[in-house]
Amino acid sequence: MKISVIIPTMDEPAIADVLHDVLDALQQHSVELIVVDKSKDETATRAAELGAKVIHQTGTGYGDAYITGFQHISEDTETVVILDGDYTYDPYDIPKLLQAINDGADLVIGARFALMDKGAMSRRNALGNRLLTALIRVLYHVRITDSQSGMRAIRRSALDRLKLESPNMPFASEMIIEAQKENLAITEVPIRYRNRVGRAKLYPFRDAFSILFTTIRLVRDYNPIVIFLPIGLALILIGLAYGTTILIEYTTTGIVTRLAGAVLSVFLILTGLQITLFGLLADIILTNLRRR
Ligand SMILES: Nc1nc2c(ncn2[C@@H]2O[C@H](COP(=O)(O)OP(=O)(O)OP(=O)(O)O)[C@@H](O)[C@H]2O)c(=O)[nH]1
Ligand SMILES: [Mg+2]
Predict the structure, then answer these.
(1) What are 64-119's pLDDT values in tens digits?
(2) 3-state DSSP call for residue 4?
(3) Minimum CA distance residue for ligand 1 atom 18
C-alpha cells in the first residue's frame, strides 16, 4: 500500500526523530514523506536529508499547511497519514491507524486521552478539546472522543471528497465535519500522546475561540435548524411565559400595570417566530440545493 505521510512544521527541533520513526514504523510500505515547512531554523534541511519532499509554505496556518501538502500527494497514493512534527505523536502508532483503514474505515482519528503522558496536554487544552468534541458529537452525531487530535489516517478517495478551507486550527474540526457530511466511516483508535519538544505554535485563547466560532459557522451553514430553531423557540417561550403573567394580572384585576413588559413579551414572541421561520426556510433552501 502506498502511503503519503504529511507533516506541517514551524521550527520543530525533533523533526529528524519523527521522520526517522515514521520510516522505521512503515518499513513494510511504500512511503512518501511530505513536510510542509514554514521554519526559520534548519527544520527543512533536516527533513530533506531524511528523504522528505519539502514544500515551503507560502501561506500561513496549520490548516493551510495541510491544504498545501494535499496538493503534492503522488498520483498512486492510496492512504494519507497526517501528524505533527513536534514529537507528541508516536509514529509507531501509525500501523494501528492503517489497520483500521484496512478494516473498512475511511477516516481514522488517533484518540489521545487513554494513553496520555503526564503534562502532555494542559488542563485548559483538554477542557477546550472536550467541549468542542461534545459539540461535534451532539450536532453531527459523530462518535469520537478527541476531535482535535492531529494524528489521522484517511483514504485518498475519501480525502478527495472533502471541502477543506480552514487555514488555521479549526481545520481539525472541519475535516471531521466534512467527513460526516460525506457519510464516510469515521473511527478512532487509542494512541499515545507525549510531551512536545520545542515551543508551542498554538495560541490557546485565540485558537480556542476561532475553533469554536468555526464549528458554529459550519453547523449554521450545514444544519441551520440546529442553531436557529432552539434560539427562536427559546425566545418564543420566554415571551409567552412573561406575557402570560401579564395576561393573568389583566384578567384578574382588569388593568395592565406593566406596559413595557407587555411590549417586550410581544417583541420576544415575534422575534422568536422570525428566527424560527428563518431557520426552517434556510433548511428548505439548503435541502433543495443539496438534492441537485
Ligand atoms: N507549516 C506550518 N506548520 C505549522 C503552522 N502552525 C503550526 N504548525 C505545525 O503544526 C503542528 C501542530 O502545531 P502545534 O504547535 O504542535 O499545535 P498543538 O499540537 O495544537 O499544540 P501543542 O500542544 O503545543 O503541541 C506542529 O508540527 C507545528 O510545527 C503553520 O502555520 N505552518
Ligand atoms: Mg503539537
Answers:
(1) 999 999 999 999 999 999 999 999 999 999 999 999 999 999 999 999 999 999 99
(2) strand
(3) 202
pTM score, two decimals? 0.80
How far CA 54 is from CA of 3, 21, 69, 150, in Å, comes to 16, 17, 9, 19
Which of 56, 62, 152 gets mutated to test ligand 1 (max ligand atoms within 8 A of its CB)? 62
| Topology classification of domain 2-222 | Spore Coat Polysaccharide Biosynthesis Protein SpsA; Chain A (3.90.550)
Ligand 1 atom nearest to CA at 10 = 29
Q: Is 146 left (phi over 0), alpha (psi -120 to 50) or beta?
A: beta
Provide the residue type at 178 as one letter.
Answer: E
Grid cell of 197 as nine digits: 519538544
253-256 long-range CB contacts below 8 Å, 24 or more apart? none
Find, among 4, 192, 193, the residue nearest to 98 by Cα.
4
Domain boundaries, the chain: 2-222, 224-291
Among 191, 176, 160, residue whose Cα is nearest residue 25:
191
* Residue 84 alpha carbon, nearest atom of ligand 1: 27
**How does pLDDT run across 104-151, given as a tens digit for each residue?**
999 999 999 999 999 999 888 888 899 889 888 887 889 999 999 999
